[in-house]
Amino acid sequence: MQVEQVDGLVPIKIFLQAKGKEVSNDSLPQFIEQYCRSQCIGTFLKEQHTGKLVSEWEKSIKEMSERPELVDMSPAISAAMAVKDEEELVSLYIFWPFI
Fold it and tell me: CA-to-CA distance for 44 and 93, rounded, in angstroms?
């Protein structure tokens, strides 16, 4: 899967989860709805998580009729975070001026 060129800013939406004794909100259902509309999701496939929120998440995902394709982002993140020499930094700046 190739990341496509996007004109302008990439939209980001943050879903705030209620903490502790706060009144429960509908952020998880909203997020799952958005997740279902996606065709492809970048993730770290080898990571395993536990907890109440993860249990709710897994239950909701199992109930979905269609799921997005999961793409392992580990190699891309590793390459982006690797130490760069001066020539590579100049090349990156030419192609990705927002870095």
Answer: 26
Number of structural domains the chain divides into: 1
Entry pTM: 0.58
C-alpha to C-alpha distances, 31 to 27, 60, 86, 92, nearest whole angstrom: 6, 11, 40, 33
DSSP element (H, E) containing 91: helix 86-95
Residue 82 has pLDDT above 60, yes or no: yes
4-56 residue pLDDT tens: 666 777 677 888 888 877 777 888 888 888 888 888 888 888 888 888 888 88
SS3 assignment for 13-51: CCCCCCCCCCCCCCHHHHHHHHHHHCCEEEECCCCCCCC
Residue 5 lies in a domain: no
Residue 76, C-beta contacts closer than 8 angstroms, at least 6 positions apart: 42
